[in-house]
Design a protein that fits this description.
Layout: H1 3-7, H2 11-26, E1 39-40, H3 55-58, E2 66-73, E3 77-78, E4 82-85, H4 96-100, E5 103-105, E6 108-112, E7 118-121, H5 123-136, H6 144-162, E8 170-180, E9 192-201, E10 220-224, H7 249-257, E11 262-267, E12 272-276, E13 279-286, E14 292-296, H8 308-320, E15 336-339, H9 344-352, E16 356-363, E17 367-376, E18 379-382, H10 392-405, E19 414-417
Parallel strand pairs: 1-4, 10-11, 10-17, 14-15
Antiparallel strand pairs: 2-3, 2-4, 2-9, 5-8, 6-7, 6-8, 7-19, 8-9, 11-12, 12-13, 13-14, 13-16, 16-17, 17-18
Helix pairs in contact: 2-5, 5-6
């Protein structure tokens, strides 16, 4: 890990480390995750690297040559991690994850920069969030800093071929995941767990273009949820667990049949705005008093995911969208950054009164993508996109983050993977 990353260990990271220490202290014989014990078995049959933006990339099935696997057992703790050729996993039919949803995962990317370097974007946040998700579904904690080392090790091996230096501004999607795969069938925490990491070429969903689809105008169309609820206070909406996603597919597929890209998830009788699909949702509007605000749902209540891109948007906005900032222009004004509960009625009123400036989603999959339409109560709210293909604020935030991820600017969030 580089010096910047070590110095910027967050509260979330520290929480993960403390959880790992408590596990180790509970039994002197239990072992914590230790990347220094990593062994590597190289593939003898390298997989074909798909072409950029090809149909195979859009199928999201073409994983890289290798994967990381680490076993945990309740009588030993974390075993030595391995890098092995990518291939099927072997689990028993009675595995806990197949019956009780003892499963969690992360989504992140590794980027090939303009300077030829590989970078992870704020990996400490993803690694720590995986600890939080794991403990929510009775899976064991671990030291998140060790998981970051394993991510780097996998990318040192597969990165050069799958993200060649001759193709800058490209990325791979990384999926660290944990499953309870113990054989016992019963409502108990798993006696055996598997942590694994895979990497896959991923399409740029923010462009909305694929070679097999008809090009469509920019901007997402969202369908506000009606009877379905994605998450609720005190539940597990904040955790990245499969149980948050599978039940949402029904509404998602129905929305697509109607021509919408994602579901805008609402909560409660007052239709509180929470998330859009699996992304965080932002609006820029003027209040009745004329104040310009960037608004998104709060983390309190644990309804929404603490998105890494969401967190980054908020931090950059609070730092740069302020009075006398060098980043302000004729189109980019200073504004207040607000995390609070707000409702669809407020959004509708802002749109009708001409106070709605723009809206966008943020996340690893869709990155930062503008929203042009929200359908609520069978009526479309038309959301402005001042630059034709994006709003001013979404556009500049996206560019700032791209500059960090691809090394155009030196920033502590862009963690370099040292290659041989």
């Amino acid at each position: 890990m580089n010096g910047h990353a070590v110095e910027s260990v967050s509260h979330l990271t520290q929480t993960g480390i403390e959880a790992s220490k408590k596990m180790a202290e509970s039994s002197s014989s239990m072992h914590d995750l230790d990347a220094s014990q990593l062994t590597v078995t190289l593939t003898q049959n390298p997989r074909e690297v798909p072409g950029l933006n090809s149909a195979e990339v859009w199928s999201v099935k073409a994983c890289t040559d290798h994967m990381v696997t680490v076993k945990w057992t309740d009588d030993y703790g974390w075993h030595a991690p391995k890098i092995v050729p990518y291939g099927p996993l072997e689990i028993m039919p009675t595995a806990s994850c197949l019956h009780y949803a003892t499963q969690c995962f992360e989504g992140m990317k590794v980027y090939r920069g303009y300077d030829g370097k590989l970078r992870l974007f704020r990996p400490d946040k993803n690694c720590s969030r995986l600890v939080s998700s794991a403990t929510r579904v009775a899976l064991p904690p671990f030291n998140p800093l060790e998981l970051e080392k394993l991510l780097k090790a996998l990318m040192r091996l597969d990165g050069p071929r799958w993200l060649p230096k001759t193709q800058p501004e490209n990325f791979l999607y990384l999926r660290p995941a944990m499953i309870g795969n113990g054989e016992q069938l019963g409502v108990v925490s798993p006696s055996e767990v598997l942590l694994f990491i895979i990497a896959v070429p991923w399409p740029d969903l923010s462009t909305g273009w694929s070679p097999s689809a008809t090009a469509k105008p920019p901007g997402l169309k969202l369908l506000a949820s009606k009877n379905d609820i994605r998450a609720w206070p005190g539940g597990f909406g904040y955790a990245k667990v499969g149980a948050n996603y599978g039940p949402a597919f029904v509404a998602q597929m129905e929305g697509r049949k109607q021509g919408y890209d994602q579901i805008l998830w609402l909560f409660g009788p007052d239709f509180q705005v929470t998330e859009a699909g699996a992304s965080n949702f932002f609006v820029v509007w003027k209040t009745k008093e004329g104040k310009l605000q960037l608004v998104t749902a709060p983390l309190e209540g644990k309804i929404i995911l603490d998105g890494v891109t969401r967190r980054s948007v908020l931090e950059l906005a609070r730092e740069r969208f302020i009075e006398s900032s060098e980043y302000l222009t004729a189109d980019i004004k200073s504004l207040d950054v607000v995390e609070r509960t707000y409702t669809m009625d407020e959004l509708v009123e802002a749109e009708k009164k001409g106070r709605l400036i723009e809206a966008f989603v943020s996340g690893t999959a869709y990155f930062i993508t503008p929203v042009k339409t929200v359908n609520f109560r069978d009526e479309d709210l038309n959301i402005p996109m001042a630059c034709e293909d994006t709003g001013h604020y979404a556009g500049v935030l996206k560019q700032w983050l791209l500059d960090i991820k691809y090394g155009k600017v030196d920033h502590e969030w862009g963690v370099v993977v040292e290659e041989e």
